[in-house]
Design goal:
single chain, about 60 residues, mainly beta, 5-stranded antiparallel sheet, 1 helix, 5 strands
């Protein structure tokens, strides 16, 4: 069975109770809001980045891939 989830390395710019503001290149002006209901985000040990897991469809819609 094929999973439609993708893992992306992102920079976390801001977080609220409902969403995260992330970018793939660290540029806050290009950052997009992702609802927490559609993703999981975990810090990368010893790095300034996070791993964002979300459906590929959402990643494409938000321009992250």
């Amino acid at each position: 069975m094929r999973s439609d989830l993708v893992d992306l390395t992102v920079r976390l710019h801001h977080e609220t109770n409902r969403a995260v503001l992330v970018s793939t290149d660290g540029d806050r002006e290009k950052a997009v809001w992702i609802p927490k209901s559609t993703c999981e985000i975990e810090p990368d040990a010893g790095k300034a980045t996070h791993t964002l897991t979300l459906p590929e469809r959402v990643a494409i819609e938000k321009g992250l891939v």
